[in-house]
Amino acid sequence: MGTVKLGENMEIKEEVIMKACSMARKAHKYPGKQYLSKEIRSSSSEVVFSFAGSLSVNDWFSGSAFGEMKVDLQFFPSLKYVGLDQTGRVNEAFFKRFQAVLANPRFKVEVEKAVADRRQVVFTGHCSGGAIAILATAWFLEVYNRQSSNCIEPLCLTFGSPLVGDYIINIAIRREKWSRYFVNFVMRYDIVPRISLSPLSSIKQQLQRVLDYFNQNSQQPPNDAPAFYETVVKHASSVATYAACKIMGSTNPLLETVSSFIEPSPYRPFGTYVFCTGTGKLVVISNPDAVLQVLFYSSQLSTEEEKVTVAQTSLRDHLNYENYLQEHLKRPAVTSLFHHHQEALAVSWNVASVEREQVDMALNDLGLCLGFQSERARLSLRAAEALEKQKLRNQATIDGKKKDIEKCLDKLQEYQSKCAHKVGYYDAFKSSDEEEDFHANVARLELAGIWDVIIEMLKRYELPDEFEGQKEWIGLGTRYRRIVEPLDIANYYRHLKNEDTGPYMGKGRPRRYKCTQKWREHAEQLPDEIPESCFWAEVEELCIKAGCQGTIESILHLKTKVDKWIQNKELGDDVLLENSTFTKLQKQHFLTN
Length: 593
Description:
By secondary structure, the protein is α/β, with parallel strands linked by helices.
């Protein structure tokens, strides 16, 4: 495989990359403006929005050691680990700056016009302006692309941007198949993309002097630039080593002990990274675990002399993206590593596989083949690639269980049909008087075993990040929940588990049902409500509270929901049979009151 031009390697016009880079740098000249916007003159299809980076350290970190906050789901409802209900974290200072941009009505009007005119919206930024561009792109995807499949896909091009979000953000971005929209250019020694890996307390004064240097654009970097570079790289080392140990499955208790005392940075890369090697070449990496390792190992130095020289070069390089890309973007010198082949990319890679020779050349260009840590670097990168492949193998394993799940669900659906002619599905299973009830319980337990394994794999991050967004598994999970959860509820109240544990909807509901419910709610953008599969849990609690104040109103409200669920075929009409517990509950209250 030979090297190719970046424009051929990715379906992004070189003209767009260069215009975005130029506007990203130009935005710094107008610090009073929140953003600049411009159409690309020779093309009628793109509108570029560029954001300036801030030169105040207070706009980089806010609050805690690393300045992170939980994502505001009102702005970014998708940036979470759906089934396990874990919310991602983003840099609070960057989020507040983006929030200020969003509060500007002119910004929304211009974006809306670009969308209406069928233009591709390109968000870009250099330095911390890149962080604002990333958040703007995530917002755009939530507001436009997630709501409409007809909207033209956006593009985010950043140059020397610091990291913005944690590993949950990466999971969410890949689950939504949004990774292809984020392309981050990084000069090999540029220190800025590594800054977020350090706590503010260790670099605050030095960082402000570095920002002042960027502002003055003087020839001489700060005297403490080497110390600043060394501090940032030291923290990057801690994060990369910790992440590599996790990837390799280290069970060393010392790892957890150290991390409990020394808090590692929560920030992680996501999207595609284009590393500018400094040798005229570009190396493309779309595996986020590999990107993190390259961010550290490519910044390693072997001598004291190098520390001084490279530390100064790292600051100059941060200001040199436009010149470097102008010279090398059109050259056939691009290599792609660790292609994430599961996702169908609009920004597609023409490279199907990378031969050993090209890998060695790319690693050498990044400085990963030199020095005493070269072997560790290679091991870490191989582990990142191996983890990705193992996740795909794990998915193949559980995909092989689909037939077993379907077979058990078909049996239970047949059992449900038979019960519909008696007292109903729920009440028949709760009584468990017949042999067929026993067989239904066996199927219930078999399915619980399969689904509990899947949920445990999700908890350990052993499945592809896209798994929770796969329509087939969302549909299968919904079918499983609707058919089987009523049986779990019947079993729970039959054995009076509520007397020890409390109501089923409190601590009694298994995670497998919570996860599958949340998958559907996220995919269909539904509100977080008590679902139809928990109908019988509500009935049981109303039976227990019979005669209490407000019970009649609760029954009427539940009856309204039942009618809607039955109409939408989300609940069987056997719940209304003459001898069902729900019918008896209604008769008891409306005949005695």
